[in-house]
Amino acid sequence: CYAWLPGGFLGVDVFFVLSGYLITALLVREYERTGRIAFGQFWARRVRRLLPALLLLLLAVSVWIYQVAPVETWMARRRDVLWTLSYGANWHFIDTSQDYFAKYTGASPLLHMWSLAIEEQFYFLWPIAFFVLSRGLRSRRWPMVAVCITAAGLSAIRMATLYDSSGLSRAYYGTDSRVQALLV
After folding, report:
1. pTM of the model
2. How far apart are CA 125 and CA 61, in angstroms?
3. Burial 125-158 (b: 16+ CB within 10 A, else e)
4. What is the dihedral sign for C-alpha 79, 81, 82, 84?
5. CA–CA distance from 29 to each of 32, 81, 101, 145 (Å)?
6. Which of 27, 93, 138, 184 could covalently link to 98 via disulfide, CB atoms 3.0 to 4.6 Å apart?
7. What is the CA radius of gyration of the chain?
8. Rounded-to-integer distance, Cα 70 and Cα 128, Å
């Protein structure tokens, strides 16, 4: 790792920014072309793109858990798998106090899936919000930018207010505290 850029914090945020930009660009093009958003088609494309790889990953992790993990962890790992499949892993990890930054051997092998959960939650909610805002603001660009900047600022404030040096998980995993990067 580079001494001037420790950890992986920036990489996740850059990925979220790029993802938010690309998804919004798709929505803008569709709305400008048709005056609507085909939600079903949009979500079906996301499912076709992500679900096959996710299912393969979950199958491999499940086999690994069965072969390697202690039996007493199976129930917790099964819940991790199910929450990952439902794209709610980030909230599950908050609820079960699984610390992304803890260095211990009992961590879930799916702990990294919090970021995919946030991205998928964004993919579900953003097209609806984008459509409502586009209609309400009559497709005027600057008011939409102002709404996004305001929402991103509120998300950053939310992250700051949730910050607790004794446990960073809520601020780190929360959709509400991480959506700022996607909105940028």
Report:
1. 0.88
2. 28
3. ebbeebbebbeeeeeeeeebeeebeebbeebbeb
4. positive
5. 5, 35, 39, 16
6. 93
7. 18
8. 43
Residues 6+ apart with CB under 8 A from 160: 171
The CB-side HSE value for 104 (13 A sphere, CA atoms) comes to: 7
Rounded CA-CA distance 42/26 in Å is 9
The contacts found for 64-73 with CB under 8 angstroms, 24 or more apart, are 64/109, 65/109, 73/106
One pLDDT digit (tens) per residue for the chain, 184 residues = 456 656 666 788 899 999 999 999 999 999 999 999 999 999 999 999 999 999 999 999 999 999 999 999 999 999 999 999 999 999 999 999 888 877 666 788 999 999 999 999 999 999 999 999 999 988 688 888 999 999 999 999 999 999 887 778 899 899 999 999 999 9
Angle at 143 between CA 25 and CA 157, to 5 degrees: 85
The CA distances from residue 107 to 19, 33, 146, in Å, are 27, 47, 40
